[in-house]
Fold these 3 entries.
Entry 1:
Amino acid sequence: PILRLLEAQLQDQRREHEEEMEALRNQMDLMQEELENQQQAFLQTLQLSPEVQVELGLQQEITRLTNENLDLKELLEKLEKNEKKLKKQLKIYMKKVQDFEASQTMVPVERRPHERNMQVAVQRKEKDFQGMLEYYKEDEPLLIRNLIT
């Protein structure tokens, strides 16, 4: 039984190896054919006048840049779509934070002893302010809550 199992495994490996070799041969044949086509196109290009060679080179470069531009536009669209999704998620989370903060203000102060212990000393830079307040948009609910209390 063990010998048959080993023979079956060996045959499976041989079959996989032969399939892989066939796939590699096909890939090599395709690459060889592509190389021959490129060589023939190159030889034909060498027989053309310098002006026509330059024009063909420019056309190829324009084609390459156009394809690259299309790829970049596709990437930009994907990134914009992702940005919209993330902004939507941010709005949802901001709403949840505001709801949470609103629920926290309704709880009496005596029930929140752990918040008093969590206060942190903040070092501030001394500046001359003239009635303007600078803050980050995400800090707005906290700022409003602190102004009210």
Entry 2:
Amino acid sequence: LGALLWAPWRALDGAPLAELSGDQDFQLFLHKNLEFTRKIKGDVDALQHAVCETFQLCKEEELLLVRQDLGIPQAPLEQCHRRTFQAEACFSQIRDGLRTYQGSLAAVLKLLPAHAGLVETLQLDAANLSSNIQQQMEDLGLATVTYPTEGPGPLPTFSSGFRHQVGGFFILANFQRFLETAYRALRHLACL
């Protein structure tokens, strides 16, 4: 009776890729990329700290009115939140989001030339993580889905130095939130 009562709840979890949960290569991929994601999060945090120190832009709630005018896109990850979690869709959104942020970091590079090395490393790391996910999807024979980009698309042009600073602040804040969700999704898969 306990097994019968438990089965519907397990189905709601969406337990993706259960057949691969014991696959050593897949687990190695997940653990390496969990560490890689954690490293990228640390680099984004360091850049957020630099924006805070350099421009005194530290609190998101103080900048919300300017944010609305800038139209800084947030890469979607709703496929990684759903109760019917599907690994293919989540991986695709993580991959696409990493590519979006890799491009958006060009605005941060112009904003923080003293931190060019860190920004360039972050761009390379985002590209590498995106490539790792793409390769793993191909290795597993997962369907590759490309989601249409939401929001205004390319990075907006900034009409003033202050708007550029705030734009850089929100690119990093959005990227940090994105990485936190991606990390949780990868950790969820590693725990199956």
Entry 3:
Amino acid sequence: LGWKFYDADDYHPLENKKKMEEGIPLNDEDRIPWLCALHDILRREDTSRQDTILACSALKKMYRRVLIGGASAIESNHPEQPGEKPALKILFVHLDGPKDIIAARLKKRRGHFMPLELLQSQFDTLEPPSAPENFITVSLEKPLPEILLQIETAILRG
């Protein structure tokens, strides 16, 4: 697509990385500042009209709201008011698959701070996207070319 790519894991603060390396799951207090920083990156790219892909485990609905609206999304559930910066338009891609497939892929990763032991905590935290969120669900059980085609088709449809 020629879009700019960011891996959210690259933006975790050192404290979060250390916690995960020790097998301690992150909580909302750990994740919110990280998500706000990611929102700022997305906002900057949007302002410069740069299409962007962010790989991020935005596990909860609230986390996805923070990515769209920044810190203000935490304090309120109200729609944007006149004069507020407009929310970012984001298509969330929910990569869905059985834990054994994801575990097998995690085992192949080298040099990453999140150990396999934390996978269950991610499943426990997960709130799959639902209406009215802007999302698609893609099965990880499909071959990679099919996964990419499904995502690209959804992006191009807008």
